[in-house]
Write a structure and sequence with these properties.
The structure is a homodimer. Chain A is an alpha+beta fold and about 180 residues long. Chain A folds into two domains: about 35 residues; about 140 residues, Nucleoside Triphosphate Pyrophosphohydrolase (Alpha-Beta Complex). Chain A is built from three helices and ten strands, in the order βββββββαβββαα. In chain A, the strands form two sheets. In chain A, strands 4, 5, 6, 7, 8, 9 and 10 form a seven-stranded mixed β-sheet that branches. The radius of gyration of chain A is 19 Å and the shape is globular. The interface between A and B is large, with 65 and 65 residues.
Chain lengths: ~180, ~180
């Protein structure tokens, strides 16, 4: 098991409202020196919510993604705000995007999207015991809400508009977790 | 179902060797106008390989991730080169990172990492019938190779160093796919 590379220098090479691109000079334990570009996503991390609306059924939202220039079906998600607790951020995003609140919220795990150049962590939160509690969000248009059965994930992933890796990972993780609870 | 927002203007606001940050002005079908930042990842897309070394057992690689500043266990992956076919890129990355080639390569599906600001698609490729065929790569140090059983994904995801959403999604997708093949 190798020691972590030594960080020799870090420089900001480009900046925008949302992003900061850094160049990092590294020396690996075998002496190799390289420079990597790294993207700093400003903010306090993100939260991805798996809302269980009925046994074995979850809610997805349909929202425009500027990166892919199409509507995508995804689990509700958003940024954690300054000073906001993780489960409070999950509750807020859930209410803003689906119109439901949850009486029961639990952190499942944290995932990353590109460890090679992004430090960003998204915390997956399981939301159960939903009740109607809409909250106005900052979305340019209200998201469409779609119910999906957890026992039919292959059909969901086969769609052209459900491609986001965190959503797919979270749905499988929660399906296994709920199946294990049933077995207990 | 809403019409896609109209793209009013696109501007490059920051650039580096690897990235280009664009600002996109959009008008939604309800009249709302907003500007989104979008990250253009230069290149021809990426490939993520699920190498099956023995029935129900896959290979993972342990590599330093500059974004998270730690070693991560991930499926072998890399950029597709100019003019390179998808399965050729998968074969090359597999040989470079694990020292194995595959006699059987199949595309599973394409996933995205952040549809809101990244257009980038990663194609998941299932690799079977492996044989020893190392190829020197451009990694600063040779990746460590770890074998993992597909029937123990919860223990893998529970680790602090296996967090990448595409890896988790691909492992679950392939586990289901191989289980379904067995049932047929």
């Amino acid at each position: 098991m190798s020691d972590k590379p030594e960080i020799l220098a870090t420089r900001t090479i480009a900046e925008s409202r949302l992003f900061e691109i850094q160049e990092v000079d590294l020396r690996f334990s075998n002496g190799t020196e390289v420079s990597f570009e790294k993207l700093m996503n400003r903010g306090y991390g993100a939260v991805l919510v798996v809302p269980v609306i009925a046994p074995g059924r979850v809610l997805l939202v349909r929202e425009y993604g500027a990166g892919v220039d199409r509507y995508e079906l995804q689990l509700p998600k958003g940024r954690v705000e300054a000073g906001e607790a993780l489960l409070d951020a999950a509750q807020r995003e859930l209410r803003e995007e689906t119109g439901y609140g949850a009486r029961r919220l639990e952190r499942v795990t944290g995932v990353t999207v590109a460890p090679g150049y992004l430090g960003h962590v998204t915390e997956i939160v399981l939301a159960r015991e939903l009740y109607t509690a809409p909250l106005p969000g900052d979305e340019p248009e209200p998201p469409g809400v779609v119910e999906w059965p957890l026992d039919d994930l292959p059909a969901l992933v086969a769609r052209d508009d459900c491609t986001e890796a965190r959503t797919i990972a979270a749905l499988y993780l929660v399906r296994d977790l709920l199946n294990n609870e049933e077995d207990e």
